[in-house]
Specification:
Oligomer: single chain
Distance between the termini: 71 Å
Number of strands: 20
Strand content: 5-15%
Number of helices: 31
Strand order of the largest sheet: 13-12-11-14-15-16-17-18
Largest sheet: 8 strands, mixed
Bound molecules: nicotinamide-adenine-dinucleotide
């Protein structure tokens, strides 16, 4: 071929298979935009017209990435410039190209050895066949609904033709990734091979990988065969009856509504697109049904907000360079958080020394790790040997000296200051000279814990959220004495564990717990004033708290979830910041020493013992308050505290608060983020309401200076 391409490499093999290697210039992942589309168009045309080409294999030169989909930065730029209409042209061009690939008499095969997301997967769906490698980075998904849009390159039309309606609806409406082996089982991939990706990422080297060889041979097979109809089970035949099909769509819609509570329209619009396109060709349906729906979603404020979160996350991940992290990590404390952190480390290939005070606790922790990994094994996400490797990677011990070789230790022990100080003292006695010590404390500052440390410069905070497998935020806490090397080590480890790291200044409650505590404290006060537990949690759920986790949750339920002792410790520690964190005494009474603590909820109803305790200490009967006022009392104090965090330099930019509160506290994404939402509500209005609440109820509602200035 006598044409130079910027984003593709090509190689025509003697057997007539053209290798098309996607290698988007200047990016670690491949992206679909006007530039790459134009080049791919030329390549497809060349393949179709050149008689030496019998078929083509589409592969990627990027390590671990087939194609990440549409160029969101360009979309965002178009949005900023009010030029979203221009996106329509690119989409139409892509539809024509994908139809050419799909209709080509010469087979196109996609060889996928990494993430194939959104437009990347849609490109593969237009190919005659898909071969996947079972390396852990292979993940296939149409995650558009997570950005408030629907698949735009024919995904809503082609996926159901390949894997059937129910599976396609599940994939499109959830946006979830399907890994290699499940993809093969679903029929999304025609073959799944074990293949080691070559280190040298040239087309010549990649063509020798098993994945490429299998894909090339498969393409040659397809050249010899006539087009084959896909075979589905009897359930597929039943779906040809409109009545049965309608039931399937109805069920899928119901499932979506239960999850989104009507707050995220995109999954339902995607369902509409699949349904309305049923009787058309993939091309016509993409153009006439999918595109108009896609454009409507793209123009919505919600999709703009959800894309902002995506960019903020990228910004947070790139805020500091990554350094290599130690192979062996210590985890001190094998309780609720410790075992989850140890499991995550083992999943990412680390050797873990897990320390606690007795063998029973350790045995329980190992049992929990085993249960979690076994679930992955049963779902075929991991292989039996991976299960074994992960289990063998965790070494339980009651002896601190077994941590002498670790390069990084995470302390997730009992929330008592003297316990944590003692642990640090013991660790320093045996630690290697360059080991970092990171505390997962929720309520103390790193400064308090490291008060007597011999090497305070090696101490930082690494604050995970519960449940660790779901909550992706980690606060990387920099104390005034923490060395740059320690902060980098903690940041890099958080990244390696697939977390979203927010670097925060040391201070009570760090960032998320400090802001969230205002909401929790207010909920406790509302209950003390006789407002029903169900009304308080209900108002928070209607606002959308924790909706994105799949299970909306109110503040009192949240206290039950994290454990009342932890909650009490957190608010107590925050009292050093002011009386706004003071709580009614009944909360402490709910967690008596040496006794099982009370909860707000019990078996799905308000816990009568707790209600009795509250009534004994405070009011009889419910005060008159509207749901709207409950919401204001819960949410507005968080805005005030967010401003205070900025004033204190805990973080420096509002987007960091928005991102952290989404991923660490369950502030609903559809509101655009705490600060963005407050801006839209009107800061002046919030300041005015807080002043009213201060005058009418309590000085705990008093605004901080920067918010007050907006009002005065
Ligand atoms: P937990 O009570 O479930 O577990 C604490 C563990 O520490 C226990 O197994 C205990 O035996 C062990 N321990 C006590 N002294 C020890 C010592 N000297 N050496 C080793 N282990 C020791 O507590 P948890 O909920 O797992 O919390 C652990 C830490 O994580 C706390 O600092 C907490 O504030 C923080 N945290 C908790 C949550 C949460 O939701 N529970 C969330 C984020 C952070």
């Amino acid at each position: 071929m006598n044409h130079e391409f910027k984003h593709f490499k090509t190689l025509l093999l003697e057997n007539g298979i053209l290798l098309i290697g996607f290698d988007y210039e200047g990016s670690s992942v491949n992206i679909n935009n006007d530039e790459s589309l134009e080049e791919l168009e030329k390549l497809v045309q060349f393949a179709l017209e050149n008689k030496d080409v019998k078929g083509a294999v589409l592969l990627s030169l990027k390590q671990g990435n087939f194609c990440a989909g549409a160029d969101l930065k360009k979309i965002s730029l178009l949005r900023q410039n009010n030029q979203l209409d221009l996106a329509e042209g690119i989409i139409s061009g892509m539809h024509v190209l994908l139809q050419k690939i799909e209709q080509s008499p010469k087979p196109f095969v996609a060889a996928i050895g990494g993430a194939a997301l959104g437009g990347g997967l849609e490109l593969a769906l237009a190919c005659r066949s898909r071969i996947v490698s079972d390396n852990p980075k292979t993940a296939l998904a149409l995650p558009e609904v997570k950005l408030g849009i629907i698949p735009g390159f024919g995904g809503t039309q082609r996926l159901r033709r390949i894997i059937g309606i129910p599976a396609a609806l599940e994939m499109i409406t959830s946006g979830k990734s399907v890994y290699a082996r499940p993809a093969f089982k679903l029929g999304l991939a025609d073959k799944c091979v074990t293949s080691v990706p070559s280190e040298i990422r040239t087309l010549e080297e990649i063509s020798k990988e098993r994945l490429s060889i299998v894909a090339i041979n498969h393409a040659l097979d397809l050249c010899r065969k006539k087009r084959m109809e896909r075979k589905f089970g009897t359930s597929h035949t039943l779906l040809k009856f409109p009545g049965i099909r309608n039931v399937v769509f109805f069920g899928a819609r119901l499932k979506v509504r239960q999850k989104t509570k009507g707050r995220y329209p995109a999954p339902e619009r995607a369902l509409d697109a699949v349904k309305q396109g049923m009787k058309m060709s993939a091309y016509r349906a993409s153009q006439n049904v999918e595109k108009p729906i896609f454009m409507k979603c793209l123009r919505s404020q919600l999709s703009g907000d959800l894309m902002n979160f995506f960019f903020w996350q990228e910004r947070a991940e790139k805020i500091m360079p990554i350094v290599p992290t130690p192979e062996k990590i210590g985890v001190i404390g094998a309780g609720k958080m410790g075992w989850q952190i140890a499991a995550l480390l083992a999943q990412k290939g680390k050797q873990v020394v897990l320390k606690d005070v007795n063998q029973n606790i350790l045995a329980r922790a190992i049992g929990k790790i085993s249960d979690a990994e076994r679930t992955l094994l049963l779902k075929k996400i991991i292989k039996p040997h991976e299960y074994q490797e992960r289990m063998l990677a965790v070494y339980p011990t009651i002896h601190m000296d077994r941590l002498s070789g670790v390069g990084f230790a995470m302390e997730a022990a009992l929330e008592r200051l003297e316990v944590k100080r003692k642990i640090l003292e013991e660790f320093e006695e045996i630690a290697s000279p360059d080991a970092t010590f990171a505390t997962n404390t929720s309520s103390y500052t790193v400064a308090e814990i490291a008060k007597n440390a011999k090497h305070p410069e090696r101490c930082v905070g690494l604050h995970f959220f519960n449940p660790v497998s779901k909550m992706r935020l980690v606060e990387v806490v920099r104390a005034s004495f923490s060395s740059e090397a320690s902060v980098r080590a903690a940041f890099s480890l958080a990244r390696e564990l697939g977390r979203i790291p927010i670097i925060v200044k040391d201070g009570p409650g760090f960032l998320v717990n400090r802001i969230l505590s205002r909401y929790v404290v207010e909920a406790v006060w509302l209950a003390a004033q006789g407002v029903k537990i169900s009304r308080i949690d209900g108002a928070a759920k209607v606002f959308g708290m924790a909706i994105d986790s799949g299970r909306a949750m109110g503040p009192l339920e949240l206290i039950d979830f994290v454990g009342i002792q932890v909650a009490v410790e957190v608010v107590k520690s925050l009292q050093s910041l002011g009386s706004r964190f003071e709580v009614p005494h009944y909360l402490v009474r709910m967690a008596p020493e040496e006794k099982h603590p009370l909860t707000f909820w019990k078996a799905g109803t308000e816990n009568p013992e707790t209600v009795k305790l509250i009534r004994e200490h405070y009011v009889q009967g419910e005060i008159k308050i509207s749901d709207d006022m409950i919401e204001k009392r819960l949410i507005f104090p968080m805005v005030d505290e967010a401003f205070r965090c900025l004033e204190d330099g805990i973080v420096n930019e509002p987007w960091q608060i928005d991102l952290a509160m989404l991923h660490g506290a369950g502030f609903p994404a559809f509101r655009g983020g705490l600060m963005t939402w407050a801006e839209r509500e009107g800061m002046y209005r919030i300041a005015k309401e807080l002043k009213f609440l201060e005058d009418a109820h309590s000085k705990r509602f008093a605004s901080c200076d920067s918010l007050l200035r907006l009002f005065l």
